[in-house]
Design a protein that fits this description.
single chain; alpha/beta; Rossmann fold; 2 domains; ten-stranded mixed sheet; seven-stranded parallel sheet; 24 strands; identical protein binding; CTP synthase activity; ATP-binding
Length: 668
């Protein structure tokens, strides 16, 4: 061994033959040695053992390779090493761990660091694609077709990054990967267990994904913010807690810190902020081997000084690192609230990161947080859907409307309309609900029909589309909302009274919406047309082309298994329904517009998934401008001609090409 220099030697070698030994054969001893080294503040890795593999139960004697300068006691940060911030939650779910994690990312970006994010969901589902919106909120679709937790949407919107399906780690994915390895024989006949095999797989996944750039630039990110879903103590999250406990030693404690989000409730009768739930939550977390460096305390009002001191004393966290996370006027103020309490400075100090003194969040404050609170002129959008009892089911749609309103200087009001309440059957069953639904629809400045699945409420959505078409009310349809617009047009303009989608009517004589031939009829998970895909604009003389700045094609995310029947396109276009966007084969309809209407636009894709606070979706902006009576003025300033593809080549345009909109430009 001594004849081989450091550059020639792999991490783990046989002391006898100098041949590479499979990591799995040494798994237990390798992990134990690494953890022991990290715990004692050593920055070394094991080269090899003097003990043969067969003597697995004995203590091997390791020959060490120096990885870098010896760390100080406690594990000082390594220069250039990946940094990790873990965000956990306690007491109850729904405290805002995702917003907290996103806000930490915003602050670290403002300090000049490149940030990526990972969301860990302890459920056994492989992904969120088959989960009910009522149970889990919306399914957020990523560029690579990953169907993920809605928190990944928060990360993308706050940090302006593009994540992949690997950034959402679930128990189902981990077990699936480990079982596949076991079937291949990768574990050399060993008994596969939660510890070490599942926990090691989790650590390897996190480390691999953390080193993947997500901001469109080359090179490795500086910091990875990890959110652990659920609450501390949940049985489902125990393997992840154990894996992360080990991981902090694997990467060195100076490269890892934990932020714990907990509830500080106020008992109505007493009116006192109670610390006991947080004390118990932190005690549970510490007993599992994770010590929080910061406490993010959710409450309705700012923490009282005495409460902060009490939490610091009982939770073993410095008082300056106990953050008050009270209710604010909008979620974009959360990063500013954390900055005011020095959260960025604490994290940078603990992880050995620079830039805290140079943090600049002025743009975030002026153009997002402050601007949202300063909007006064109201615009009302009727959201006609089937999951209206849970706003999280349409979270990205809501956020895209907010982004568009900030660009258009309008204050948003959403009137939620349960689609089935617009139907005649409801009039006899619940006349009050029927009248209320129609009152909201008729009083709205614009109508939006978002995506969805199944037949419930479809007739109500068709009635909403008919109302918008016949009354010149601005209409935006998304995914199912586009199919609804086509069905309504077929019934009431083409006269095909029984026109329908084969999704809920297999026997319709006019199947204007049909199942895509490449879809699966036996498996639902991950079998739809998913992810970012090209939509080629067919003409420059359309609203969509002008909103997208008249480029040749746009790149948006999809999630559907049904499409407009391509065999019937001629009849629709002859009657005035224009398919102005198609896929790159020209056979799949992507964008439809109605001629001679102020704004009747629908898209098969989901433009909401790429909308950002300072980069609003063009189609959502179009809806808000049309609903405000400002669309014509806005479009009159847009260049309509485009150069031919032969001269320029096709160029993709994503949401955000109109990021610099100002009130002066729009003259609103």
């Amino acid at each position: 061994m001594s004849n081989l220099n450091d550059d020639q030697m792999p991490d783990i070698w046989s002391p006898v033959s100098h041949t590479r030994i499979p990591d799995e054969a040494w798994e237990y001893h390798i992990r134990k040695a690494l953890n022991d080294a990290a715990y004692n503040g050593l920055d070394y890795v094991p080269y090899c053992s003097t003990m043969p593999v067969q003597q697995h139960d004995d203590n091997p004697k390791w020959i060490w390779k120096k990885k870098g300068a010896a760390a100080e006691s406690g594990g000082a940060a390594q220069s250039g090493a990946m940094k990790y911030v873990l965000v956990t939650g306690g007491v109850v779910s729904g405290l805002g761990k995702g917003v907290t994690a996103s806000s930490i990312g915003v602050l670290l970006k403002a300090c000049g660091h490149r940030v990526t994010s990972i969301k860990i969901d302890p459920y056994l589902n492989v992904d969120a694609g088959t989960m009910s919106p009522f149970e889990h909120g919306e399914v957020f679709v990523l560029d690579d077709g990953g169907e993920a937790d809605l928190d990944l949407g928060n990360y993308e919107r706050f940090l302006d990054i593009s994540l992949s399906k690997d950034n959402n780690l679930t128990t189902g994915k981990v077990y699936q990967a480990v079982i596949e390895r076991e079937r291949r024989g990768d574990y050399l006949g060993k008994t596969v267990q939660v510890v070490p095999h599942i926990t090691d797989a989790i650590q390897d996944w996190v480390e691999r994904v953390a080193h993947t750039p997500v901001d469109g630039r080359d090179g490795v990110p500086d910091v990875c913010v990890i959110e652990l879903g659920g609450t501390v103590g949940d049985i489902e999250s125990m393997p992840f807690i154990e894996a992360l406990r080990q991981f902090q030693f694997r990467v060195g404690q100076g490269n890892f810190c934990t932020v714990h989000v907990s509830l500080v409730p106020v008992i109505g009768v007493v009116g006192e902020q109670k610390t006991k739930p947080t004390q118990h939550s932190v005690a549970t977390l510490r007993s599992l081997g994770l010590n929080p460096a910061l406490l993010a305390c959710r409450s309705s009002e700012p923490l009282q000084d005495s409460v902060r001191e009490k939490l610091a004393s009982f939770c073993h966290v410095p008082a300056a690192q106990v953050l008050t996370m009270h209710d604010v006027s909008n979620i974009w103020r959360v990063p500013l609230m954390m900055q005011a309490q020095g959260a960025h400075d604490t994290i940078c100090r603990l992880l050995g990161l620079g830039g805290a003194a140079k943090i600049d969040t002025s743009m975030w404050k002026q153009r997002i947080a402050d601007k949202w609170d300063q909007l006064t002129q109201l615009v009302t959008i009727a959201m006609v859907g089937k999951y209206t009892d849970l706003s999280d089911a349409y979270l990205s749609v809501t956020k895209a409307l907010q982004h568009a309103c900030m660009a258009a200087n309008r204050k948003l009001k959403i009137d939620w309309v349960e689609a089935s309440n617009l139907e005649e059957a409801t009039k006899t069953e619940d006349e009050a609900a029927y009248n209320d639904a129609w009152m909201k629809l008729r009083s709205a400045d614009g109508v939006l029909v978002p995506g969805g699945f199944g037949g419930r409420g479809v007739e109500g959505k068709i009635l909403a589309a008919e109302y918008a078409r016949t009354n010149d009310t601005p209409y935006l349809g998304i995914c199912l909302g586009m199919q609804i617009a086509v069905i309504e047009f077929a019934r009431n303009v083409l006269g095909w009274k029984e026109a329908n989608s084969t999704e809920w009517d297999q026997a319709t004589p006019h199947p204007v919406v049909v199942f895509m031939p490449e879809g699966s009829t036996t498996h639902f998970g991950g079998t739809m047309r998913l992810g970012a895909r090209k939509t080629v604009l067919q003409t420059v003389d359309c609203i969509s082309a002008k909103l997208y700045q008249s480029e040749q094609y746009v790149d948006e995310r999809h999630r559907h298994r049904y499409e407009v029947n391509p065999e019937l396109i001629g009849a629709f276009e002859a009657a005035g329904l224009r398919f102005v966007g198609k896929d790159d084969t020209g056979t799949r309809m992507e964008i439809v517009e109605l001629a001679n209407h102020p704004f009747f636009v629908a898209a098969q894709f989901h433009p909401e998934f790429k909308s950002r606070p300072m980069k609003p979706s063009p189609l959502f902006l179009g809806l808000i401008l049309a609903a405000s009576g400002k669309l014509d003025h806005f479009l009159s300033g847009r260049a309509t001609p485009v150069a031919s593809p032969a001269k320029t080549g096709l160029r993709p345009v994503e949401n955000g090409t109109i990021a610099a909109l100002t009130a002066a430009k729009l003259q609103l």
